[in-house]
Amino acid sequence: MAAGVHFEQKYLQRGALVPTAKLAMWLFMVTEIMFFTGLIGTHTLLRMGTPAGDWPKPHQVHLKEWMGAVNTFVLIASSFTIVLAHSAIARGDTKRCLLLVGITLFGGVLFLGIKAVEYTAKFQHHIMPGRIGDNLDPRDGRAPYDPNYALAYRDEVQHQLEDIVKNPAKHGISEGSEDFKTAQSFLDDIKGTADKPPISPLEVGLRLHPAEDEKKFEEYEKKYGNLHLTPYIPYGNLWASTYFTMTGFHAAHVIGGLVLFVIILLKGARGNLLPRHAMMLELTGLYWHFVDVVWIFLFPILYLI
Amino acid sequence: MSDPVHTDDAHGAHAVHAEHHDAHISDKTFLRVFGFLLFFTAATFAANQFLPEKLKWLAFLIIGGIAIFKATLVVVYFMHLVLDYKKLFLFIVPVMILAPLIVIVLWPDIVLAWRLGPMP
Predict the structure, then answer these.
(1) Over the range A157-189, which residues count as b (16 or more CB within 10 Å of their CB) and which as e?
(2) Is the peptide bond before A129 cis (omega within 30 degrees of 0)?
(3) Which of A201, A238, A227 has the alpha carbon at shortest distance from A56?
(4) Contacting residues for A114 by C-beta, under 8 A, at least 6 apart
């Protein structure tokens, strides 16, 4: 009997000095680190695997640095409020806790709202995986160069221009305006005339190439910005694939956090949120901080360097 | 001793209490960390905006270093690893080694191969 008691004591001493739920949460988070490492690592390798300087610059793909910075601020602030919410419930102040969870929820929604604005701008400019004009120049040695793909790109731009010329009001362009004239003459160049052959897909692409040089980029935006034609951005499709995969999965994690906040708020609304639920707040907080940490890396990788 | 943040919940093991008897992070500390995070976010933005093209490598180092530092601040204070069960590092440290290695092992094939050109 004594031996049994002795064994039990030893066993207890060997137990982890951390609640099982928190242990599980940390295990979950390290698997999540590997998940995002797969995505960020793929992006890094693809980016470094392109010739130096060829990876699209943020302004070429309609990324606004300040929007990313604002979103970073929003996420850090919401991390701060959820940590205070946990602190409040640990003191037994569930009312303050609920208020802070509400503010955190608002932060998460604001983050997604800004992300939605950014996504919309990309969709409008045809910056989507597989939709960008890419690899149009047979001389730059990228394999495989496919002339059919290049012709398909020219056809796509031609259809877009025909639609604008046929139905300018649908695109918010008035007949006779500068934008309309640009579209008309561009279409003529693509179709060709009796004495002028149609311009090549590469020539179409070079006109619709958002320049690296910021000044030239402004000129391009002024001339073609309102037409929303499919741009020509070398490696743009790779960029779009990695951008939407990384930010998409990150946004999915944000939505997951919002669901947790709503559950806590509903619990509070029914008067069921008690100081003994501090662990629930702590685990939710851990998850939300993880989402914040991922964004701390995504922001510079996508918007800055 | 105001604003304590317990590292365990109400049903938490007594052993945890025993180990971290007065372990807590105050709201004041959280506020300070929050201030640091905001300051370094601004510093990142400034390094990107104002360093000339020639010093791109420096901007890269500053921005990368700040990202790692900010993430460490969040993990250490907001996720209170500073006073949590130290054996949690048995999960975290191997992953921190594995994560960069996964990228590094693919580096020669995907990045270096074409940069170095054909073998002499």
Answers:
(1) bbebbeebbeebeebebeeeeebbebbbebbeb
(2) no
(3) A238
(4) A67, A70, A71, A74
Q: Among partner residues B66, B91, B96, which is closest to A27 by beta-carbon distance?
A: B91
- Number of continuous H segments (helices) and E segments (strands) in chain A: 10, 0
Q: CB under 8 Å to A32, separation ≥6 — which residues?
A: A253, A290
Counting one residue from chain A and one from chain B, the pairs whose CB atoms sit within 8 A come to: 149
Residue A20 tokens, joined: 């099982």
A292-301 pLDDT, tens per residue? 999 999 999 9
Report the residue of A46, A66, A235, A305 to disrupt the B interface, i.e. the one with the largest count of B CBs within 10 Å.
A305
> B49 to chain A: which residues are within 8 Å by CB?
65
* A231 in Cβ contact with A127 (< 8 Å): yes
Q: Which residue of B has its CA nearest to A47?
A: B111
Taking only the tens place, the pLDDT of each residue in A52-95 is 778 999 989 999 999 999 999 999 999 999 999 999 999 999 99
Q: Which member of B44, B87, B107 has the closest CB to residue A16?
A: B87
Interface contact B103-A90, CB threshold 8 A: no
B107 pLDDT above the threshold of 60: yes
E-strand spans in A51-128? none
Task: Give A-chain residues touching B4 at CB under 8 angstroms.
Answer: 87, 90-91
